[in-house]
Amino acid sequence: MFCLSKGLGAPVGSLLCGTREHIDVARTHRARFGGQMRQAGVIAAAGIVALETMVERLDDDHARARRLADVVADVFPGSLDPATVETNIVCAHASAFPRDVLDALAADGVLAGTVDPDTLRFVTHKDVDDAGLDHAIAVLQGIARGSIAST
Predict the structure, then answer these.
(1) Cα(133)–Cα(139) distance, integer angstroms
(2) 3-state secondary structure 24-66
(3) I want to staple 8 with a disulfide (CB 3.0 to 4.6 A). Which of 50, 136, 137, 141 is the partner?
(4) What is the pLDDT of residue 31?
């Protein structure tokens, strides 16, 4: 299963791939849980556009995430191993950051979140260009120095 909204920029949607038997079982479970949509063609159209126009640019997101991971590992030692970052999602140990890091980031226009109480999550995507990444890096470096950077 993979999501069309994460890196591909579709508003919603996921695809489930598998054998005919696997898909039949999944459809049965979906129906039991009320997971059917009527007239889902508009949503499907957005998914098709995402698959046809956004896949090639995923490498840019992944490269930006690796760059972000390198900086995070450098300025917040013990936060993560950059070699483990393979996609556009960077997860780091929250204990390596100041307690209010998410608020500090948000105050300077950088959004991040948590996976759980111990894990911070940063995501690069179609709306994060090189300038946006540079800004996020400057803010993170400012937080690491104990001051918020404004660029």
Answers:
(1) 10
(2) HHHHHHHHHCCCCCCCCHHHHHHHHHHHHHCHHHHHHHHHHHH
(3) 50
(4) 86
